[in-house]
Amino acid sequence: AAAALAISATAALAEGETVGFSQIGSESGWRAAETTLTKTQAEERGLKLQFSDAQQKQENQIAAIRSFIAQGVDAILLAPVVATGWDAVLQEAKEAEIPVVLLDRQVDSSDDLYLTAVGSNLVHEGEVAGKWLVDSVGDKECRVVELQGTTGSSPAIDRKKGFENALAGHDNLKIVRSQTGDFTRAQGKEVMESFLQAENGGKDICALYAHNDDMAVGAIQAIKEAGLKPGTDILVVSIDGVPDLFQAMANGEANATVELTPNMAGPAFDALAAYWKDGTQPAKFLQTESKLYTQADDPAGEYERRKGLGY
Ligand code: GYE
């Protein structure tokens, strides 16, 4: 009888909740780190994680959420690739009484359709990046090119807005070209090549603002292949704080980045634990930090500190 009791107790402990995670894909080093940290923390907390990689397609995310609902998971994590088109499937999760937690991006659905959203203030990130450039350039004429994130995603919309807020009133800084690089290195390089060609081989470009570090790293490659010096001929400012950007900064090839923690799962799992325990309703937005790093902030040391963190 004692042995049976021990087994059932263990079974109860091992039971743990099941969480479905609809991840966008692995378009950037930052996203790969977010996935790694989510899997590690689920394991540490005794949660069973059903992971789905949507290859950056919304229809795949919606299908994954529907399969999680059919499985009767205890919660759903969703990093929404774009901001629109979620009402129906979020309503289905609500009717199934499955709490949904948004990670790192926002949706335009009403906030009664999700338990909480964990992420940074994306407009503020753009403002921090823009302010750094305004302060660095002073009253010099500066033609700026912009690599936007995934079209229709909340970071692409908000980081553009924030950067423009910071440049308002400083007419010597002008965004002369702006196009999506879909948050990837490859497309960041490709689009930057077209910007360089269109701007007198890059000689007319004073600065690049990239909505994430991966596009900046791709663009840095293109700037070097055009025979120019990234970080001096063309200033480079971006967002995420991934190790490779700190590496570029240590080499003088990038100037500034706004850090985005890849650990969105920690606050998400904490909120879910409280909700599962006694129905505690968290705030609808759990905001993470946005810290500016420049070449003055020991980039080589920051590279060392980050390179093991799941990137
Ligand atoms: O900046 C980028 C990833 O959603 C804020 O998505 C996140 C962004 C991040 O592709 O690297």
TrEMBL record:
Compartment(s): Cell envelope
Gene3D superfamilies, alphabetized: 3.40.50.2300
Main subcellular localisation: other
Pfam families per UniProt: Peripla_BP_4
Keywords: Signal
PANTHER family xrefs: D-ALLOSE-BINDING PERIPLASMIC PROTEIN-RELATED, GALACTOFURANOSE-BINDING PROTEIN YTFQ
Record family assignment: Belongs to the bacterial solute-binding protein 2 family.
Name of the protein in its database record: Galactofuranose ABC transporter, galactofuranose-binding protein YtfQ
Organism listed in the record: Paracoccus simplex
